[in-house]
Write a structure and sequence with these properties.
It is built from 16 helices and 13 strands. By secondary structure, it is of the alpha/beta class. Bound molecules: glutamine.
Length: about 475
Amino acid sequence: MIDLKNLTVKKAHTAFIKNEYSALDLSEAYLKNIEAKNKELNVYLEVFDDVREQAKEADKKIKAGKAEMLTGIPLAIKDNILIQGRRVGAASKILDGYVAPYDATAIKKLKDAGAVFLGRTNMDEFAMGGSTENSAYGVTKNPNDTSRVSGGSSGGSAAAVAADMALAALGSDTGGSVRQPASFCGVVGFKPTYGTVSRSGLIAFGSSLDCIGPITKTVEDAEIVFDCIRGEDSLDSTSVELPKTNSKHPTKELKIGVPRGFVEADGIDSEVLKNFNESLEGLKKTGAKIVDVDVPSLQYALACYYIIAPAEASANLARFDGVKYGPRLSGENGIGDYFKTRALFGPEVRRRIILGTYVLSAGYYDAYYGKALAARSAICADFARSFEKVDIIAVPTSPTHAWKIGEKSDPLSVYLADIFTVTANIVGIPAISVPSGKTKSGLPLGLQLIAPVGYDQKLFDVCKSIF
Ligand code: GLN
């Protein structure tokens, strides 16, 4: 029996090299777990039928002495990342039956490394939401408490890792969708600097915010996956090559900034705040210096995000017209087909499209979208100023722990839960959520560390030296 609970990418890699078990054995172990748990948790929308073949290919590579760190590692992939020849649907009815015509660049890199794809994971439709309750295919339950959500939008990927239904996973993060479900499920979620991972083959939500990121059990595993998928890509003009700066930061000199006023504002759960303060005490003990930072424009981040993200989404989702992708429903005429097909979008996606087209409309552009862009610049400037004084900024990942399924019926209350995550996307900076303990009732909580543009490696180094 392979001990999946304590397995990491590195441990599995070592086991392959030492011939303790094969990639096929490992994939079998995960398939068995998926078989046992998926019905209850609803993590995977589809488990691929060629997992064993993929694993056998990986075993050939391992036998030939050509194993890379991710060769034979079983991964879960969010349902908005394209794998050639496989269905992909962003958990939406409007893409029902759609088959990806090419590989996302991140997938291509993982394939080159010999990784094994177990299946595609559930998510909020088009990555809009924070609980997978907006999926057209039902909610993903939290493995820690099945009466609760797994977070979102990459809730399937986070639950897969937490429930040992994959060793690592890919998610996408537009406003927190890798970090928040990671914190709800008790695993690590990393959102890279904008552009360091190509967006080619990621179904677009908010193009200036979207990032593919890893969800893993350890910080080291997140680093391994990120190192594989990152890099400049001719298929994404916003992609950048990040030097793998070796920023070994002795924690003695590390200065961590805390925007106190922002963190302690109304709406944060008392257990979350207590856990956050305890985490800071823990950081202090490792020699880090904790200082207050004032980031006045932070109060506008959520409003700014909920204008920019829907605006970009409304433009990106215009392509789903019943002609180019997925099913086409018949109405009375061509326009009728269009309306009928677009009614396949779920309520949250429609809400965002309406909001987005409104803020971009001629009469309101300056009042909303223009203002949001101005706020975005102010937030970026404030962060740049703060990072002159501190190395890293710390905030909780989410103001609450995982909520009960069906508990939040008001969409605004779900939007408010993104208060601590959206900023990193607005500014384009890297951020990581690491498990920071549990509530009294045993629900996981996360601590979020945020670094300046391009300092992704620093986040890994700092986390590895602390946790
Ligand atoms: N919860 C946020 C939203 O609904 C973030 C989603 C995401 O990062 N994809 O927009």
